[in-house]
Automatic annotation (TrEMBL):
CDD domains: LuxR_C_like, REC_NarL-like. It comes from Streptococcus henryi. Transmembrane segments: none annotated. PANTHER family: TRANSCRIPTIONAL REGULATORY PROTEIN YDFI, TWO-COMPONENT RESPONSE REGULATOR. This is Two component transcriptional regulator, LuxR family. InterPro entries: CheY-like_superfamily, NreC/VraR/RcsB-like_REC, Sig_transdc_resp-reg_C-effctor, Sig_transdc_resp-reg_receiver, Tscrpt_reg_LuxR_C, WalR-like. Residues 141-206 form the HTH luxR-type domain. The lineage of its organism: Bacteria, Bacillati, Bacillota, Bacilli, Lactobacillales.
Length: 213
C-alpha cells in the first residue's frame, strides 16, 4: 500500500507528538517530517515534498497564512491542510483564499482529521462543518473591494509588491501620514486585519496585474 506522506508544521511540540503518534498508527499514513514554525515548515516541505502539509496558523517567525502563500509560490502543487484552534473569520478567509485545500479545528475528532488528510491528499477540499458555513456566508457577500477608491487601489498594488509605507509615500509623492490613513481605510473596507490579508484578497480577486505578482 502506498502511504500518504505528511509533514506537521506546528509550534506546539506536544500537538505534533500526539498527532504524529496517531497518524503513524494508520496503515495508509506516515509522518515524514515536522517543523516548529512556518519558515522552517516551508524548508521541510520543499525538501521532502510530502503529499499533505498539515499547517498551524499562529506560529512564530512566519504565520500559517504567510507560509501557505510562500510555499505555494515555490511549489504550486503543494496540498495544505490547516489544523488550528481558531474559528475566527479573519483567520479562515485569508488562508483559504491563499490556496489551502482544507481547514480543520484541533477540536475535531481524530477520525475527522484523518479523513481530512486523506481527502486533501486526493486533491479534494476538506473543510470542517462550522468553517464551511462561515465560508459560504462570506462568499455570498458582495465584493468588498468595490468601495476602494482609485488611490486606495494604487496603494494596494504597491502593498502587493512588498513596499513599506515610506516607499509607497515616495512612489506616489504623498505624505507618510496619508499613506497610513489609506492603508487603514483599505484594511477596514476589505474587512481584514493586516497587510498580508489585504494582499491575499488582492490576488484572489485579481486586483493586482500579472506583472505585479
Amino acid at each position: 500500500m502506498t502511504k500518504i506522506n505528511v509533514i506537521l508544521v506546528d509550534d506546539h511540540e506536544m500537538v505534533r507528538l500526539g498527532l504524529k503518534s496517531f497518524l503513524n498508527l494508520q496503515p495508509d499514513v506516515e509522518v515524514i517530517g515536522e517543523a516548529g514554525n512556518g519558515r522552517a515548515g516551508i524548508d521541510v516541505a520543499l525538501e521532502l515534498r510530502p503529499d499533505v502539509v498539515v499547517m498551524d496558523l499562529v506560529m512564530p517567525e512566519m504565520n500559517g497564512v504567510e507560509a501557505t502563500l510562500a510555499l505555494l509560490k515555490e511549489w504550486p502543487e503543494a496540498k495544505i491542510l490547516v489544523l488550528t484552534s481558531y474559528l475566527d473569520n479573519e483567520k479562515i478567509y485569508p488562508v483559504i483564499d491563499a490556496g489551502a485545500k482544507g481547514y480543520m479545528l484541533k477540536t475535531s475528532s481524530a477520525a475527522e482529521i484523518l479523513n481530512a488528510i486523506r481527502k486533501v491528499s486526493r486533491g479534494e477540499l476538506a473543510i470542517e462543518t462550522e468553517v464551511d458555513k462561515k465560508i459560504k456566508a462570506h462568499d455570498a457577500k458582495p465584493d468588498l473591494h468595490e468601495d476602494l477608491t482609485a488611490r486606495e487601489r494604487d496603494i494596494l498594488a504597491l502593498l502587493a509588491k512588498g513596499y513599506d509605507n515610506q516607499t509607497i509615500a515616495d512612489e506616489l509623492f504623498i505624505s507618510l501620514k496619508t499613506v497610513k490613513t489609506h492603508v487603514s481605510n483599505i484594511l477596514a473596507k476589505l474587512e481584514v486585519d493586516d497587510r498580508t490579508q489585504a494582499v491575499v484578497y488582492a490576488f484572489k480577486h485579481h486586483l493586482v496585474a500579472q506583472d505585479d505578482e
